[in-house]
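subagent[fold] <- orchestrator: predict structure for attached chain, return tokens only, no commentary.
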Amino acid sequence: MFDKIMVATDGSEASRHAADLGISLAKYSAGKIIAVHVLDMQRIISLPGYTTLHGLKESLLDAMLREGEEAVAYIEQKSKDEGISCDKVILKGNPSDELLRYSKELGTDILVIGSIGRTGISKFLLGSVAEKVVRHSEIPVMMVPFSTEWLPD
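subagent[fold] -> orchestrator:
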């Protein structure tokens, strides 16, 4: 059914919940997980001092890379615990664009992504990676809404 299941992660609780569901889907369909984190370069380029302060660029990139490695490592460990094969990938660029590009390039069967469920003006102002992926994907997307009601007490 689903041989290649891409799970997008930013390390948040929403993406961890989505990862859990993606891993369940992989287990059910005897598929493989591809855990993907995208380093959002726009996030740091727009910071004051990015190009002028010595060492800032490298420090920020290192911190973002560590964050990404932790995010995909979480999915790798959860997959391993369930006996599911998992590849880890870290990309650089615009998150929605890179997820769309890479899922198509890889021939992914489905892309699983979490959503924190912004609505109204915050969604309009901030945009949504998950929403952009759903709107423009050429493959099926499972967008998993996140709710704090799912968190343990």
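orchestrator: received. Logging for downstream: Helices lie at 13-29, 41-45, 56-81, 95-106, 120-126, 129-136. The radius of gyration is 16 Å.
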